[in-house]
Design brief:
178 residues, Bacterial Protein-export protein SecB, flat, single chain, four-stranded antiparallel beta sheet, alpha+beta
């Protein structure tokens, strides 16, 4: 008995069991990637451009998802990044640039078990979105008169594993304190 993979008309994989009977397998589809919101502030320009350039960056990343169509298992996944660039030390420290990006996408995620489904929404989808957010951050900084910012890659799988570990420890501590 042979197994063949075919793409149906909607670019979704369909397994053929060798006897013409189609079985729908897990499906992951990227429908659209879009920028929901972006903001750039440079409160101390142009004076800041004459200061020595030794920036400190603070990076905050949040992810989230919600269903757009439960029937078709389409979900919006969004990453929200806030990047603060600061110069100076102590009382002299000041924010020279503040960049916020909300990058999002619409994804079909279906046919997965519950654990894998949650993992795809928390890791695979943000991994697809992150390069677009990095590019937007770099472009905004350059347009604001700053040197190009290289935002390092993020391992969403490691972040998710850490989140699961923290949740398990929290649950364990709650059951032992009860």
């Amino acid at each position: 008995m042979s197994t063949q993979m075919k793409a149906n008309g909607a670019n979704q994989p369909t397994k053929m069991n060798g006897q013409g009977k189609a079985e729908q397998g897990p499906v992951f589809t990227v429908h659209n990637i879009y920028l929901k919101d972006m903001s750039f502030e440079a409160p101390h320009s142009p004076q800041i451009f004459s200061d020595p350039w030794k920036p400190k960056m603070e990076f905050d990343l949040q992810t989230g998802s919600y269903p757009l169509s439960e029937e078709e298992s389409v979900h919006e996944v969004a990453i929200h990044i806030t990047l603060s660039i600061k110069l100076g030390e102590g009382k002299e420290e000041k924010v020279v640039a503040l960049i916020e990006i909300h990058q999002a996408g619409a994804f079909t995620v279906k046919g997965f078990d519950e654990v894998t489904f949650k993992q795809v929404l928390a890791t695979t989808c943000p991994t697809v979105l992150f390069p677009y957010a990095r590019e937007a951050i770099s472009n905004l900084a350059t347009r604001g008169g700053f040197t190009q910012l290289i935002v390092p890659p993020i391992n969403f799988d490691a972040m998710y594993a850490q989140h699961l570990e923290e949740e398990a420890l929290k649950a364990k501590s709650e059951t032992t304190s009860s």
